[in-house]
Amino acid sequence: MDIEKILSISASGLEAQRVRMNIISGNLANAHSTHSPDGGPYRRKDVVFSEVMDSMSGNGSGKVMVSEVIEDQRPFQEVYDPKHPDANAEGYVQLPNVNLLEEMVNMISASRAYEANVTTISSAKSMAQKALEIGR
Fold first, then answer.
1. What's the rounded Cα separation, in Å, for the pair 48 and 23?
2. Using CB atoms within 10 A of its CB, is residue 89 exposed (0-12), middle (13-18) or buried (19+)?
3. Which residues, in sequence order, are bridge partners of residue 76?
4. How many folded domains does the chain comprise?
5. Residue 81 to residues 87, 91, 93, 110: CA-CA distances in angstroms?
6. What is the C-alpha end-to-end distance of the chain, expressed in Å?
7. Which pLDDT belongs to residue 136?
8. pLDDT at 89
9. DSSP 8-state secondary structure symbol assigned to residue 76
10. Contact by Cβ (8 Å): 117, 13
């Protein structure tokens, strides 16, 4: 595998994880939002990754990309708080289906995947520099 392909694959991984971290950040920021543009509480979002085959290469290498952002269909949380402005007649408020612990674990996972891609790029760069030094 040549250095250019390594860099291209790792760069696509960086972009995909960046998008994932942005979605997770939005989930964390809206963890207590009881109003959304669609009406009702904020609904948690998640990313779906897919592989895109590189048609230029004959060896079947591919890149990763975010194919779609989906909304989590798990039920909203219901909390008894009759003084809340969005409470229903029984005093319950619907809160987003965002689990803070789950989001933090996802953020750590995305961060580690991002770091792994950065390390791969650094290693490829180092190998290219060593190869140039051998040629001198």
1. 11
2. exposed
3. none
4. 1
5. 7, 6, 6, 35
6. 22
7. 73
8. 94
9. P
10. yes
Classify 37 in phi/psi space as left (phi over 0), alpha (psi -120 to 50) or beta. Answer: alpha
Q: What is the DSSP letter of 31?
A: T
Rounded Cα distance between 15 and 124, Å, is: 18
Please give the structure tokens belonging to residue 106.
């996802």
Which residue type sits at 96? P
Name the burial class of residue 117, with classes exposed (0-12), middle (13-18) and buried (19+) by CB atoms within 10 angstroms of its CB: buried
Nearest-angstrom CA–CA distance, 33 and 107: 20
Integer Cα distance of 132 and 80 in angstroms: 67
For residues 49, 52, 58, 59, the Cα torsion angle rounded to the nearest 10 degrees is: 0
Q: Which segments of the chain have a pLDDT < 50? A: none
pLDDT of residue 56: 61
**Domain carrying residue 89:** 3-134
DSSP state, residue 21: H
